[in-house]
Amino acid sequence: MKRSFIALLSAATLLISAAGCNSNDSVKEAQKVNEVKADSATANTDMGKIEEKGMDYDSKFMTKAASGGMLEVEMGKQVAARAVTPEAKKYAQQMVADHTKGNAELMALAAKKNITLPTTLGDDHQKVLKDVVEEKGVKMDQEYMKEMLKDHEEDVKEYTDASIKAADPDIKAFAAKTVPMLKMHLDMVTKMKLTVDAAK
């Protein structure tokens, strides 16, 4: 009796903490922390406000990129394990390999720049993961390729923008260096999606 009560209590605690997690978007939480850091780091001068604006753009780009990178790896692992088409499997494996490396670089850069990154997927990315992995068989592969096409179109734009607009030269260089990889992923998914969409 006592053991089942403890188990029930543990389950309730998990549900409460899960509910709490759902209401706090990890990307927004990380951005709030970075805003506080930027506020305390810049003096209340015109120059300080210009720097703060640049830091704000940079930290928002980094936090979103971190969540996106985690999505690529997490979803890639799940799809690689369950894909039925060779194209979806191959693409998912490529995403895990490339984005694991990219995520490590992003984390090292964020640590160097004192930028807090989310440690879990943001709400938008959690929804994408759920939508894909809830599907089965060819339907999952097709949903995955659809999301990867959309995701990499957005990534190419965001990283290209950051390679021009980022205030910090190292963040700008990181974004510029990552664009060719993202364009390669976009080309791959554009071609492979046609075959996956035709699969029965």
TrEMBL record:
Secretion signal, residue range per the UniProt entry: 1-18
Residue ranges of domain DUF4142 in the record: 58-191
Keyword Signal among record annotations: yes
Sorted UniProt keywords: Signal
Keyword Signal listed: yes
Pfam families reported for this sequence: DUF4142
PANTHER family: BLR2558 PROTEIN
Name used for this protein in its record: DUF4142 domain-containing protein
